[in-house]
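Hi R.,

Here's the chain you asked about this morning:
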Amino acid sequence: MKKKANVIEFRTIGELHCLPLEKIEMFTKDLALWLQIHKVAEMNDSLKATTPRDVFAWIDDGKHNVRINVSLKG
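And the predicted structure, written out as tokens:
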């Protein structure tokens, strides 16, 4: 797990234990949104998600916005 400013990068399930109890609900909403966007990109034949799928960089800012980079295939 890497942490910089208010961004925490998660790579394993074990790293989730660093989350304080009061942040778990915010975290899971953001993780769900991140997964959904990746799935939409995967289902679209003309898009490719270039954001790594094995790292979730969570921004602990109380906002529910995530960033995923996508590019056009071909």
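The chain has one domain: 2-72.

Let me know if you need anything else.
M.
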